[in-house]
Amino acid sequence: MCICFFAGVHSITTVSKVSVKTGKSISIPCLYGSQYKNHVKYLCEGPKWRFCRDVVKTNKADPSGKYSISDDKRQFIFTVTINNLTNKNTDYWCVVEINNGPDYGGHFQLSVTRGIPRLYVDHQRITGYIGENITIRCHHSNSGEMKWCRLGRNCVTGSSGSIDGAAVTAHMRDPNVFTVTMSGLKSEDSGWYLCAEGDIQIPVYLTVTEKPITTSFDLKILIIPLSVLIFIVIVVLFIWLILRHSKSC
Questions:
Q1: Dmax of the chain from CA atoms?
Q2: Structural domain tally of the chain?
Q3: Do residues 74 and 25 share a domain?
Q4: Distances in whole angstroms, Cα of residue 209 to Cα of each of 90, 134, 177, 189, 249
Q5: Would the pTM count as exceeding 0.85?
Q6: Rounded distance, CA 46 to CA 53, Å?
Q7: For residue 21, what is the domain's CATH number?
Q8: pLDDT at 224 over 90
Q9: Where's it mainly located (predicted)?
């Protein structure tokens, strides 16, 4: 196996370092060139690419269940998930398999800790509704500059900006919390985002969908017909009792 790294269309865009707690799971997105949408993708474990080992491929599942992989060929992003993390799980490579040529990929590192991660979110996968807002809280332990980015696209720093037309506002009013709000959501806003502080990022997948239609049932509309029904039952019982009494006399 040979993994090579090139600039431009032959590069993979992914995180550089993610802080995560021992025993937890993490999902990592890997953005690749559109011309490789039908190629096999895989995750390779190890600090040096020449000696890393394949742990899961899009055409070969991991029987242990520790690793999983999925490929979104519409957005050209494959996602790897690593479960039950230990401090031995630190260096990985997102790789695209090239037929009759060297594979290419990108390296990321996991900082696995027993304590609170340096940067984390409450939920790595969130759902928003078309036309509405979504708020993400990024918990951090340092006081460096915070960013909200879309994978492979632009970032918002400071208190306001936009990503692909979606308005983004941010603040740090709560201690050690970077709060991001995206407004006027569209279905095209679905995808992978990164909350970043220095060399640490945490990926967040946003799904934007139609808001479910909920019908609220007003019990008050039943009061009148229910009262009439009860009245009718009482009248019928009253008549039945009178008839029964008259027959027994």
A1: 107
A2: 2
A3: yes
A4: 35, 12, 27, 10, 73
A5: no
A6: 7
A7: 2.60.40.10
A8: no
A9: membrane
In a domain, 230, yes or no: no
Domain that holds residue 131: 119-209
pLDDT tens-place string over residues 115-160: 999 999 999 999 999 999 999 999 998 767 899 999 999 999 888 9
- Residue pLDDT, tens place only, 84-110: 998 888 999 999 999 888 888 899 999
C-alpha span between 218 and 84 (Å, rounded): 47
Cα–Cα nearest to 190, from 130, 237, 121, 118: 130
